[in-house]
Amino acid sequence: MLQGTLTPDQMSSIFGSMSVACWLVVYTPQIWENYQLKSGDGLSVAFVVLWLLGDLTGLLGAVMAKLVPTVIVLAIYYTLCDVVLLAQVYYYRQIRLRARRDSISPAARAAATESSPLILPADPNPPPAQPKPLLPPHLLWLEYPLLIAFVLLAGAGAWYLEIQATPDVSIPENPGPGQGGHGSDGVEFEWKSQLLGWSSAVLYFGSRIPQIIHNFRTRCAGLSLALFFFTITGNLTYSASILAPSLDPKYILANASWLAGALLTVFLDIFVMAQFAVYGWQDKKRAQEGKGLQHDEEEDSALAT
Fold this sequence. Notes:
globular, PQ loop repeat-domain-containing protein, LAAT-1, PQ-loop_rpt, transmembrane helix
């Protein structure tokens, strides 16, 4: 039961539950968007592969550290979601390639030779740039804040229900290395966990770079903005869950790899969101200029008649 002011460990648990809630739904917007567009071309394959390697590193660390089954199950869930994203990318590519092959006439197939190879026609049905929004146009600015607020409240609610169900559960005084505790007591450096932590940090941070480069070509078409809202929120709450118990330098140093992986990734995710904003503004400006040009042409045509 909750009594009085929340302790640092309780605050850490609340932020941790919020982070888990974000990571549980982080893949859903992109998986759904790929399904709507019948295409995964908005994603960089290198982005998903590096993200998958980071999740596999986390899974390995959870198994080696013999963490609670919930953590291991979550790591498996993240890995499976990465696999689903990769499967969508290649599945929809094969579907469109098959459609292009089927559109070739039998005569063209028969005329193809080694010196005159068969050239596939352009994709007759390119995927649309954006799926239908969840809310009406005049309420679109509320879509992402409402989604984030709902998920954060769900995470906090899950923590409260857990506390109510297990009121006698206490947090150990000396948790595992780099996992909590006040001050520097009980905090030690264990090379295996540190190696895995820094490896996952490099993989998560590095995964954003190919996606950013990919966005310069696709202009973020086919990429879910909600994916990055959830990753930013999940990483910020995750970092808060680490820092809430203690700000002792030794404790922070023991957790530096996990903090670096989360906060540096947030920086690049904000860059991706800036790409969304810039390309959206440019597309809107071009659309307005196109309407103005069409209007001028209609006026000139009316005057000429």
